Amino acid sequence: MTTGIGSTTAQLIERHRPTLDRALDAIRTREFWSPHPEHPKAYGENAAEEGRAAFDALRGSRFEVPGQPVSGEWTATEVSPYGLEMGISYPRADEGALDALLPVMRAGMSAWRDVGPEARAAVCLEILARISGRTHEFAQAVMHTSGQAFMMAFQAGGPHAQDRGMEAVAYAFAEQVRTPESAAWEKPQGKRDPLRVTKEFTPTGRGIALLVGCNTFPTWNGFPGFFASLATGNAVLVKPHPRAVLPLALTVRIAREVLAEAGFAPDLVALAAEADGDGIARDLAVRPEIRVIDYTGGSEFGEWLEANARQARVFTEKSGVNTVVIDSTGDYRGMLANLAFSLSLYSGQMCTTPQNLLIPRDGIETDAGKKSYDEVVTDLGASVVKLLGDDTRANALLGAIVNDGVRERVDSAPSLGEVALPTREVENPEFPGATVRTPAIVKLDAAKPEAEAGYLSECFGPVSFAVAVNSTEEALALLRRTIRTRGAMTVSAYTTSPEVEREVQEVCFDEPAQLSLNLTGGVYVNQTAAFSDFHGSGGNPAANCALSDAAFVADRFRVVEVRRMTEA
Amino acid sequence: MTTGIGSTTAQLIERHRPTLDRALDAIRTREFWSPHPEHPKAYGENAAEEGRAAFDALRGSRFEVPGQPVSGEWTATEVSPYGLEMGISYPRADEGALDALLPVMRAGMSAWRDVGPEARAAVCLEILARISGRTHEFAQAVMHTSGQAFMMAFQAGGPHAQDRGMEAVAYAFAEQVRTPESAAWEKPQGKRDPLRVTKEFTPTGRGIALLVGCNTFPTWNGFPGFFASLATGNAVLVKPHPRAVLPLALTVRIAREVLAEAGFAPDLVALAAEADGDGIARDLAVRPEIRVIDYTGGSEFGEWLEANARQARVFTEKSGVNTVVIDSTGDYRGMLANLAFSLSLYSGQMCTTPQNLLIPRDGIETDAGKKSYDEVVTDLGASVVKLLGDDTRANALLGAIVNDGVRERVDSAPSLGEVALPTREVENPEFPGATVRTPAIVKLDAAKPEAEAGYLSECFGPVSFAVAVNSTEEALALLRRTIRTRGAMTVSAYTTSPEVEREVQEVCFDEPAQLSLNLTGGVYVNQTAAFSDFHGSGGNPAANCALSDAAFVADRFRVVEVRRMTEA
């Protein structure tokens, strides 16, 4: 039932329907497509400057969310990993404020439901378009909360995150229109008149969706759940990570503006900022009003959510242990360069960064001859050193260490095993306060039981393990065990053997995990492209969903059928 | 990746693809369609006799499942509600047998995955075709386990269940082919060569799916989960209700035969029968091998599964309290006749049977003039009496009471309130051992707090409550509260007021629940048609899924992506 589409909404449909159709086509073919340019310069001559100015204007001020019921208290929790003074205060969501807010959010859902999937998609795409128009401002916000280097904050926090948001909108739309708005059902009854029933089908959101944001990729990991929930008729309450509020607070404010302009209740999207230690996600997650939860972060709280927030559909991306199986290669230099980049990007602070490199202790066959375990490790270390030898380039790749926990982890790498490549502190001339570290590589031996404590735990940050194994068969068994018990967002393998290729695929099918084979050149295991690559499999302990597929959206709404006898 | 389709499988695809396409069309338009005839005579002149003979041959014997690892013990737990001696023994699944069985089931999954979604759908449709060919045998099996009258056992246990199974196959196929088998991804790099990646996408089952069957609708409620799981690449372990083993045991044996003939491991489908009190579902449900669970039955175990079987995706249909809001009607006699039938069918032992009839205490407007609360209740009772006045017709509609619990419930109806229509014992001349009861109607007053204990609990069986309310507004508030706190598989309403119609829809959108409006004639609130009606909403406590929609199938498999640099 699609009713009451205001003129603004009709305009939005007209404006965005071609983009929606193109996105629907992309998720069907999974060929390359993106409507969001990756180049900073594509956003206009003054866009970079304006974005930085907009960001600077936010610093040291109160971030108002006009119209949203708030407590009157303010909270400022962000700390730029680059040492920049943030000082942005957000309305603190205490229990009283949330008690006032949730019913108001719920109240907006009827009109949001009635307008139908196409209008909801159009409103979502308008929100994305306005976010896209402010990509440089978002880039600054992401950079100074996550510690990503500028170009990565720009791309992953901007166009790539917007792509993932749009992908979720496309899936949400596709799922909702699989059932028609109405059907004329006519069942023959032999010689008697047929039974005639008129049926109407209305996709209806489950309730209020809670988005629990993360520190390292606030937009990239936040947009899919945000837009999937909103596009399927839910209200969305955004609870950012206290260290990465701004990117999602901007998102909330933009969404509220668009919703209001289109004639909907702005409170369909709201911000729940907290003070350090408030822990409001835990309270919110079990409130009966919350019917959908998206979470990215550590496994402990993710598992708590899955166990306790049983009134809600819970989508989690938790931690995992990513493996590279190194069996053999036809491009030794390409492999080393590719791996060096993967380990270095954002100082390994990606849920997709390889952690365990499984290398046969007897070495591997390569196009450059047989390479021993030690040679592979040494050569990989040399590749990292070469990649990051220039400090400007190193800073541009590594970004900053996001918090002290990660810094302590890399500093304590020597306690885990023999350091093959030590971490190096890099100066950042532009931001002297930044903690910048090159990745460390630690040697471990799978034959030693005590090594397990290292390679079978997630070691988030710039530490990876070169694990010596007896054979590729042993590597595959360890891969299987690692995915099954620890989860994996990514698996990567290098081999020239069709048989090994088949075997590693079999492991990834069984467990299941996403596999990249023999990557060299400019495609990296830790990067996935919206509309084409799945992020996570949703089938192992690292995540219970994939970004994005039908399962990511199909249970965020329910279809209510109303049936009546057809009038004669 | 679709490989290794044997010639038999190719033949099955050729045979069943047109049916699959027709089913895909049906779930898209939701117009009437069924490939399974409802009339017993459509199955051939001797089919009824042959079916009964086949059933009789099974009675008093051991039901072998050739090839399946078993314990060597046998268990016979079925008791025909018609008093017929069953005496069918099934292989008892003890822990040792299950320990041997589960790895064998898992081992069959690789080939089942590799063959691809189309072949899996074709094998499933072949299983359904063979089940369809034995519909009369299934009818006897369903009748003598559930207590359904013959015609209902035939239709609901036969063609309607087969429709629901096929619907699940269609959804499973549609979801799996939404992602292409492969994609050529080419990302422009300005003046440099584009990045080229070849991507393969393989739907892969989660693992072993556990089907926990129910007593009253072993096939109708069992087939959707069974076929959804099998069609998406999982192995399926069938744990029938101890009182309704045969319909699912036949299903397992037929499925194993088809799988073997098509070249797959027959152990992809297996039977886990138990002795009374074994409670193996509880143990199985938390085993790590079990990754999907389908359950129909009481809320207590359903909620236990949702809370504890966290390694699995759990789909539950539990109990609920179904409401009829009676505000006004333009067809008083039609309403009464329709309700009388709904209350009587299978003695109210359907999860969709109305329980609470909410009637304004000041009466309702009808085409036959104003009717007081008492008149409505009295007239409804008279309609039931008239419908069931003839014992032959009564037996044909009511079937038998499935177990002593239901019998005790209806016998104790007078303790719940003033009995407006007492239950009546009906003799069944063909099966003198059958317990046959007409529905009781008990008056309750919503103004009396003690009445809540009655109408706010599920009272499964032939007892319904005529609840006096102050107004339709109060009825709607109670409807909302009932759905939200107790769940509802169905909601029904009678009104001539567009405003009330709008309001009751709003409640059903909000909570969400499936709504039938002003049903008269031959369409009943407790019946839903596959390919068109959703059974349950999946959005209230009665069930966490709907039969069937994309959400019912989309998370039973995961898509594993394998990507490689494209060869130059």
From TrEMBL, chains A, B:
Pfam families xrefs: Aldedh
SUPFAM superfamilies assigned: ALDH-like (SSF53720)
Cite the entry's keywords alphabetically: NAD, Oxidoreductase
Annotated Aldehyde dehydrogenase domain residues: 77-479
User: What is the designated name of this protein?
Assistant: Phenylacetic acid degradation protein PaaN
Species this chain originates from: Streptomyces iconiensis
For this protein's source organism, the top of the classification is: Bacteria, Bacillati, Actinomycetota, Actinomycetes, Kitasatosporales
